[in-house]
Design brief:
This protein has 20 helices and 16 strands. The chain is α/β, with parallel strands linked by helices and 535 residues long.
């Protein structure tokens, strides 16, 4: 089988002091993230976990592990959603992509140990993101349902937008994307429409319930005294209402039935799949820990990252001698052909024009694009402006905006200003976007932003003829810099679902390979149509 590109040659010296310094910084940042991840499985607290087990119930991740095929990977999405927001860490719901009966599916499972499975604003945002991933990548969806409904004190932030989940379920069904709901516990009020609008429903006998109003509400509303089973129990729905398509004797039986449903779907991917040799990179992925400088202001060659992720460390570089701050080229990851757009520094006019042309070529060849972001923005100054940086930058953003091949993003460093947009940031709807723990994202760096505000403050004071309180101005500048630095970390960003998760750099090839495989569940096709741009 032929392969794409020529082999990249690494100039990285793992024995150099700079490498060890970079590695130590990255390891420290990853350990901080790993420490937060370790809190997620028991985020509800050991007391609630023990109560759940006493009732003979499996934890949500145990259900997922029993559902997916043995010895296959589960790509969990946004595990730290809600970090720093006041909502439960992880949003009280587990979402991700796994393999069931040889079929890639999306899975969503409620964590009943977190506030009884009630939904917070983060739960909703995380669920909406999964619906987007399911729709765009055409993945069957399995919902492991057990929820007390909305977190009522936060209903003002949940009720109105939350109704979209039912619309999304029906639209997936219309699009021929199967939806399967397993009822392990209560589905109350609006949540009862989750099984109601799913293609397939499985209820666990004696556990699964669904009703628009529970016994207390029924008593208050129509003065009827009724027990849960009669009102909305699994057996009632299987024998009387018809809401339950399958009645499971226990949780493992429900998971067995779900696997059978997926098996009879005979799901077929529409993408071409992996067509290239999936040989490992020539260089050790462990070395990815020491590639990026601890100080993100220091430059490095992004090819060192590509050499440790791409199949065989091969890259067919495009316009290698032109616009050298942007590396473009063709390669493959885990056998899936991809176009690469990777930052080697700030974007000038030449880089912008080069990137726009390359994105057009990827669309003509129906090739997904992987963006490797380490970008401080577009070049500023009179020379750049006169050289057409706005015109060419707009050209690149136009190309990114109207490109129709799947985009995947890995943020390996900085992501500042309009550079975030030009490199297919969250607002540009990439299929998947992952970050390394050193990632920083903001309008600009904290020192730069605080400095700009200081200059503006001094100018305003001068125009008014006012004296400047240097001590007060220094304190304000320092406070603003600290605020921006705090709000631009990888943890801050992932807590707000600006990405689909922080990953260990050493897992980059595996994560991108899993994401690319999911992408190929749908048609992979580009476009020849773009908005008007100036030449």
């Amino acid at each position: 089988m032929s392969s794409i590109g020529t082999r990249l040659r690494s100039r990285l010296d793992p024995r150099a002091p700079e490498f060890e310094e970079n590695r130590a910084a990255m390891v420290s940042q990853w350990e901080a993230v790993a420490g937060e991840l370790a809190k997620v499985p028991t985020v509800g607290g050991e007391r609630y976990v023990a109560r759940h087990r006493k009732r003979g119930k499996m934890l949500v991740r145990e259900r997922i592990e029993a559902l997916v095929d043995p010895h296959t990977a589960f790509l969990e999405l946004s595990p730290l959603a809600g970090w720093g927001t006041g909502d439960p860490l992880g949003g009280g719901v587990v979402t991700g992509i796994g393999v069931v009966e040889g079929t890639e599916v999306a899975i969503s499972g409620t964590d009943m140990t977190v506030r009884g499975g009630s939904a917070s604003p983060t739960t909703l945002a995380k669920s909406m993101r999964l619906f987007q991933i399911v729709r765009e990548n055409r993945l069957p969806l399995i919902i492991l349902n057990e929820s007390a409904g909305a977190d009522l004190p936060k209903q003002a932030d949940i009720f109105v937008p939350g109704g979209a989940q039912f619309r999304h379920l029906t639209q997936l069904s219309k699009a021929g994307i199967p939806t399967i709901t397993l009822g392990f516990g209560p589905a109350t009020a609006g949540g009862a429409y989750v099984p109601g609008m799913s293609d397939y429903t499985v209820f666990v006998q004696g556990r699964g319930t669904a009703y628009l109003g529970g016994p207390p509400l029924v008593k208050m509303a129509i003065d009827e005294v009724v027990d849960e089973e009669t009102l909305g129990g699994a057996e009632m729905h299987a024998r009387t209402s018809g809401l339950a398509d399958y009645l499971a004797v226990d949780e493992m039986d429900a998971l067995r039935i779900a696997r059978g449903i997926v098996r009879h779907l005979r799901w077929r991917k529409l993408g071409p799949g992996a067509t290239e040799p999936a040989d490992p990179p020539l260089y050790d992925p462990q070395e990815l820990l020491g590639v990026v400088p601890a100080d993100l202001r220091m430059p490095f060659d992004v090819r060192e990252i590509l050499a440790r992720i791409l199949d065989g460390s091969r890259l067919e570089e495009f316009k290698a001698l032109y616009g050298t701050q942007l590396v473009c080229g063709w390669g493959s990851i885990c056998g899936f052909p991809v176009g690469i757009v990777a930052n080697n520094g700030i974007l000038f006019s030449e880089e912008s024009a080069k990137g726009a042309q390359f994105i057009q070529l990827c669309n003509r060849a129906d090739t997904p694009i992987v963006f490797f972001q380490n970008i401080t923005g577009f070049m500023v100054g009179s020379k750049a402006e006169q050289g057409g940086i706005i015109r060419n930058g707009a050209k690149l953003i136009n190309a990114v905006s109207n490109s129709e091949v799947p985009h995947l993003v890995l943020m390996v460093g900085a992501s500042y200003g309009a550079g975030n947009y030009a490199m297919s940031g969250r607002a540009y709807d990439p299929r998947f976007i992952f970050t390394w723990p050193n990632h920083r994202i903001a309008v600009m760096g904290g020192k730069q932003l605080a400095g700009v505000m200081e200059i503006i403050g001094r100018g305003a004071a001068a125009r008014r003829g006012l004296d400047i309180d240097e001590e007060q101005l220094a304190a304000q500048t320092a406070a603003l810099e600290a605020q921006i630095d705090r709000e631009s970390t990888a943890l801050f960003a992932t807590g707000r679902l600006w990405d689909d998760g922080i990953i260990d750099p050493r897992d980059s090839r595996t994560v991108l390979g899993l994401a690319l495989s999911a992408v190929h569940s749908n048609v992979v096709a580009g476009t020849a149509e773009y908005g008007v741009w100036r030449h």
